[in-house]
Amino acid sequence: MTQHLDKEEKAVLEILNGHIGEENAINAGIVGKQLKIPQNATHVTVRGIISRIIDKTDIPIGANSNGFFIIKNADELVRYAEALVRRSQEIDHRRIKVDSNFRQYFKVKPLSISDEDEE
After folding, report:
1. What is the pLDDT of residue 119?
2. Do 69 and 26 form a contact (C-beta atoms < 8 A)?
3. Cα–Cα distance, 13 to 56 (Å, whole number)
4. Spatial distance between the Cα atoms of 53 and 1, rounded to a whole number of angstroms
5. What is the value of pTM for the model shown?
6. What is the pLDDT of residues 46-101, one digit of tens each?
7. How many CB atoms lie within 10 A of CB 10?
8. 3-state secondary structure the chain
9. Residue 113, burial from CB neighbour count under 10 angstroms (0-12, 13-18, 19+)
10. CA dist 31 to 12, 37, 40, 53, 108, Å?
11. C-alpha to C-alpha distance for 2 and 96, rounded to whole angstroms
């Protein structure tokens, strides 16, 4: 599955093609500077472009604390997948805790917060 990539996506992918393996990860800020993409402190624009590339292609793009890279083997895939699971669990825990804190702080009954995955 490969869908049409726009100009920015192609440019980012070209850079990522030079960063195979987690030891060669490239920071989103560096990608943004190389392509002269306006960035904020979180580099949300480049991260969004990379997300679109992941959705539109079969290229296994991973990330670690050093940046983004193309996953080169099963060990890297497992490490990245496990990191995603941990992040998901942390987000779920925070959502539950904030909901609980809200109810306690305002002394209200539980709110019905829909979960899109439960549809």
Report:
1. 46
2. yes
3. 11
4. 11
5. 0.85
6. 999 999 999 999 999 999 999 999 999 999 999 999 999 999 999 999 999 999 99
7. 12
8. CCCCCCHHHHHHHHHHCCCECHHHCECHHHHHHHHCCCCCCCCHHHHHHHHHHHHHCCCCEEEECCEEEECCCHHHHHHHHHHHHHHHHHHHHHHHHHHHHHHHHHCCCCCCCCCHHHC
9. exposed
10. 7, 8, 13, 14, 46
11. 37
CA dist 103 and 80 (Å) reads 35
- Report the distance separating Cα 95 and Cα 92, nearest Å: 5
Residue recorded with tokens 């290229």: 59
**Could you tell me which residues are beta bridge partners of residue 26?**
68
Q: 12 to each of 5, 37, 66, 84, 105, how far by Cα in Å?
A: 10, 10, 16, 22, 45
What is the token pair recorded at 22? 């987690």
